[in-house]
Amino acid sequence: MTWISIFTGKSGFAASSTAEDVTKGIDGTGLTAIVTGATSGIGLETARVLALRGVHVIMPVRNVEAGQKVKESISQKIPNAKLEVMELDISSLESVRTFASQYCSKGHPLNLLILNAGIMTPPFSLSKDNIELQFATNHVGNFLLTNLLLDTMKKTARESGIEGRIVILSSEVHRVTYKEGIRFDKINDEKSYSPFYAYGQSKLANALHANELSRRLQAEGANITANSLHPGVINTNLARNGGFFSVFLNVANSFLKNIPQGAATTCYVALHPQLKGVSGQYFADSNLNKASKYALDADLAKKLWDFSSKLTKSN
Fold first, then answer.
1. Catalytic residue chosen out of the listed positions 193, 197, 199, 282
2. How many CB atoms lie within 10 A of CB 244?
3. Is 193 a catalytic residue?
4. What is residue 246's predicted lDDT score, i.e. its pLDDT?
């Protein structure tokens, strides 16, 4: 795990840098971003800081009422904030399709797609589409959402001349997964389900998704980058189902990142000019980091892409 550090990396930032630190002096006026999971934790902070920098932020949320309250709280502190709340349950493929259709019908451009929403280590259950819930929420929904919005992102990048960026939140826990990496034939196997390994599997899928997406975008010459990242070890409500892990976070809280620090890498990858043209990489503490051997496996990434395509087309 990446512990809090004041030592800066090559980017000039450190684990102790905040989202405001890494975006200082950056003008996001004219950009439009989607930030999933923006009602709490680092998603909320990401939305706030992007709005602070002038970005028009779309907040897809499962609970619209909660989303409106977040919008109001941000607007009270940033009167000129451009925020919009839309309904989305990322674990439901039907909801993803509805959201994407509604978004595209609005005619909004899309410069930044930040896939932040997720769940962590719940007891075994299936999504509405009969997919193990962590894999469905943390990967499959994001995969479909990205595919449905890609044409809009490509059009925006082409017409504006501004590089589009897709930012997928993974985790250092992507290194702690089942021995197969991704258990394609046992995604829904309740008997061998491990909440923590299944979480690691879904976070590995996030990194693989970013890498294969990057390869495909580069192959067609699209002016869009795709990267994944580890936000840091942060005691947010993501760990509410975490059992021992959530107890550990509560005990170790004084040594962990706070939420402004936790949102820093997301905002750095999304907005910083240092990363123009940088794609298919993994970041931590607002610096390049090396992902696991599984995450760097191009064949595994291609296999996951094909598997995810079949899941999303058949549901």
1. 193
2. 9
3. yes
4. 53
